[in-house]
Amino acid sequence: MAGVVEAKLAELGLVLPDVVPPLAAYQPAVRSGVYVYTSGQLPIVDGTLAVSGKVGAEVTADEAKELAKTCALNALAAVKSVAGDLDRIARVVKVVGFVASATDFTGQPGVINGASELLGAVLGDKGVHARSAVGVAVLPLDAPVEVEVQVELVDA
Question: Is the entire prediction scored with pTM above 0.85?
């Protein structure tokens, strides 16, 4: 039975995906005490990178913002894999977003808003977080965006 958070996802027309398998020697998420840290999540849908390329060149800022939303959804799946239930999220503490950017692209914060806005829509006040949005030269698989999330859990 789906909890409140997954019901909210459904209300928004979203489905929590399967956890994206690691591309290298790491875990999608780890728990330490009441915190869950996700590894960087790429915009992978059904096992395939949705889009590749640099934001501001092959990928538009609006496309990248949607991809950041996909990354955040994948991060929630990773959190659930170690927390057991998304309703255990007390709050999102920090989001770090990486944007593979064309040399003249400076809209990284707007791109990562896709992830931040998704977390806010799904979790309400619990989704408000600290954040970094960083432009980088290249990301794994030539992904345009990568997002990692840290959440605090309610003890159970």
Answer: yes
